[in-house]
Amino acid sequence: AWQSQLEAETAALKEERRLRAELASELEGAKVAQAQAAQQVARLRQSEEEFLEVKLASQEMQVLRASGGRPLPPRRPGDGPTSVPEAAAMAIFGDLELGRSGVALWELGLGEMP
Predict the structure, then answer these.
(1) Residue 65 in contact with residue 56, Cβ under 8 Å?
(2) Coiled coil where (predicted)?
(3) Does the reported pTM lie above 0.90?
């Protein structure tokens, strides 16, 4: 009787060890997935920043071409947008230099929009 109880407890212990190893493996997989997701988020943020830099440079080039090649005064952080697309981009994506997102149009110096 005690031998069958010992065998049952040994089998239960083996099953517990198997489950523990399985859970440890799943936890490791979850940690890897989390690290990959964090890397993807970082890449997406970098891509967004690069996109906005290129967009701003493109808009500045359009303004420069429209001004007949006259240089524009340097922009200061508090200056408002120089074009409607820039205002829309700032309203949608926010002012990345200030770390804000979802800036309202009135915050961009555009006043009340009808």
Answers:
(1) no
(2) 6-50
(3) no
